[in-house]
Amino acid sequence: MKLTWILLLVVPAVVLAGIIQGGPGDRIMGFAPGDSLIDTLVVTVRVPARIGLYVNGNTEFDLGSAAVTYPPVLFPGYYDPTLVGGTNGDGVDVQVFSNSQVMTWHLETSGSGDFSATIALDQLFYAPDGEPNPTDGNDPPGGNWVSFTNAYAEIANGTNTTGWQDESQDYVFQAETDDAPTPAAGETVTIYYRVYAQ
Amino acid sequence: MRPMGKSIFILIFLSASLLFSRTRIMVIIDSDVEFDLYQVIYPPSVFPTYYRPTQASGFNPNGILLTVGYQRIGNLHDISNVYVSTRGSGSFSASIALDQLYFAPGGEPLPPAGVDPPGGNWRAFSILYQEIECLEVSGPGLKRFERPQDYIFKAESDDESGDQSITLYYRVYGL
After folding, report:
1. ipTM score for this prediction
2. Does B83 contact A at CB distance below 8 Å?
3. Prediction pTM value
4. Structural domains for chain A
């Protein structure tokens, strides 16, 4: 008799209850208590394989500044920038992005040409941010300092960067004995950075 | 009538009475959703950055239109609430977790870049059901409740490229 009553209570619920499923646009219906309606949709995320380059900003070496001792006691003398456009007080902000798992990114740099007839492009040196300044009188400057040329030279490479990877570069200008005075506005070169992946 | 026949008769009667005294419940979702980062500025300058869907509901371009309803049938009712909850099937990929997808009631502002978690009413999806709403069942007739759901995708610095999909589930039941 007990079994009969248990069946009377349980069987209708079991028979009538269920999980009813559908997708977008379906009108899913059931009865409560008992039924559970489960509607579904698909969410797709498409993340492109991208490379990115951020460079900031212009840099100036003003050897006529009151804060600079020129001429140096020893040639060649090495000078930090007197004016920078970014947050790196010794050079430029450089950041690289790559989210490709299969390709290798390459960061390269070059210069447009000489500053003047007496001031060559290779008197401008770069190194990873934080490199100690060279000692006056040493030529070449040593350490990780590399002179600019008008051919692209690789600075760094890697696979995916996990966001924007800091590759900021410090600059020093190497003053030589034969540097002729520049016009008041100075002499200018353009520095190029490029990133590619392959 | 023999005891066995009587039991069957009562069983049928009880089933029928339950059928006619229960509450009909319903749910409709109108669209799948896509975040196509090819169509936006990617990578962002700051991580994390939050993106709205690039393809979504015609009624709610920021997500879906979720419609839930109930209709009392007969005079006897034994549910007082209809519950709505949601969950996701799992991570998008090894580098893109399910909890980078957030939901909120329609109209929630887009969080600013660089903020983590996004704040406001945004809730991250998980593989466990999270309750969205509890509707009190009352009154006669069909009751429909339109509940637009907004979604945002949180782009993180370690997201690998590729196309990935998950399934979202919305569960509706009455108690």
Report:
1. 0.88
2. no
3. 0.84
4. 2-39 (no CATH), 51-197 (2.60.40)
